[in-house]
């Protein structure tokens, strides 16, 4: 083969690889690595032990809230609640913004009973299950 033909093949391979790489959609998935209190949460930041179920629902429906933020609020006893409708929960940012491993944990916990408790969400987010 001639040098120009080899160059053309290499150029086409580079363009193809670049096109595949730039058009692939890598969904952002949050991991709560530091959720256990060593980096992000301090042991003194707990609430007044009057968690709010209204705030829990509000956080679930807020598109800017991640699973780590919800788990932190649960841990600090700022919110409490449970998920009873899986079809609504699976469309929330809390669920969709996390890793596949955490999503599988949440699904498993939901299917164990009739609901998904706040502590189950926290434990799935922190990797305690």
Describe, in plain words, how this protein is organized in 3D.
This protein is mainly α and 129 residues long. The chain has one domain. Helices cover 53% and strands 3% of the residues. It has helices at residues 3-23, 53-61, 67-75, 86-89, 93-96, 100-112, 118-126; strands spanning 82-83, 116-117. A two-stranded antiparallel sheet has the order 1-2. α3 crosses α7 (118-126) and α6 (100-112) packs antiparallel against α7 (118-126). The chain is elongated, with a radius of gyration of 21 Å. Residues 19-29 and 35-39 have low confidence and may be disordered.
Q: Which keywords apply here?
A:
single chain, 129 residues, mainly alpha, two-stranded antiparallel ribbon, 7 helices, 2 strands, 53% helix, 3% strand
- Assess the beta-strand content as a share of residues: under 5%
Largest sheet: 2 strands, antiparallel
Overall strand count: 2
The helical percent reads 40-55%
Q: State mean pLDDT (0 to 100 scale).
A: 78
Q: Which runs of at least 5 residues are low in confidence (pLDDT < 50)? A: 19-29, 35-39
Category from helices, strands and their pairing: mainly alpha
Order of helices and strands: HHHEHHHEH
User: What is the approximate shape?
Assistant: elongated
Radius of gyration: 21 Å
| Count of the separate structural domains | 1
Number of helices: 7
N→C terminal distance = 59 Å
**Strand arrangement, major sheet:** 1-2
List the helices and strands and how they pair.
Elements: H1 3-23, H2 53-61, H3 67-75, E1 82-83, H4 86-89, H5 93-96, H6 100-112, E2 116-117, H7 118-126
Antiparallel strand pairs: 1-2
Helix pairs in contact: 3-7, 6-7
């Amino acid at each position: 083969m001639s040098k120009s033909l080899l160059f053309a093949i290499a150029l086409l391979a580079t363009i193809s690889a670049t096109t595949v790489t730039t058009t692939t959609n890598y969904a952002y998935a949050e991991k709560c690595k530091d959720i256990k209190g060593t980096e992000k949460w301090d042991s003194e930041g707990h609430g007044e032990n009057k968690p709010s179920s209204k705030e829990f629902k509000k956080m679930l429906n807020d598109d800017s809230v991640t699973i780590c933020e919800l788990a932190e609020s649960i841990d600090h006893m700022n919110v409490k609640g449970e998920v009873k409708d899986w079809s609504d929960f699976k469309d929330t940012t809390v669920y969709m913004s996390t890793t596949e491993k955490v999503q599988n944990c949440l699904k498993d916990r939901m299917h164990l009973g009739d609901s998904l408790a706040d502590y189950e969400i926290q434990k799935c987010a922190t990797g305690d299950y």
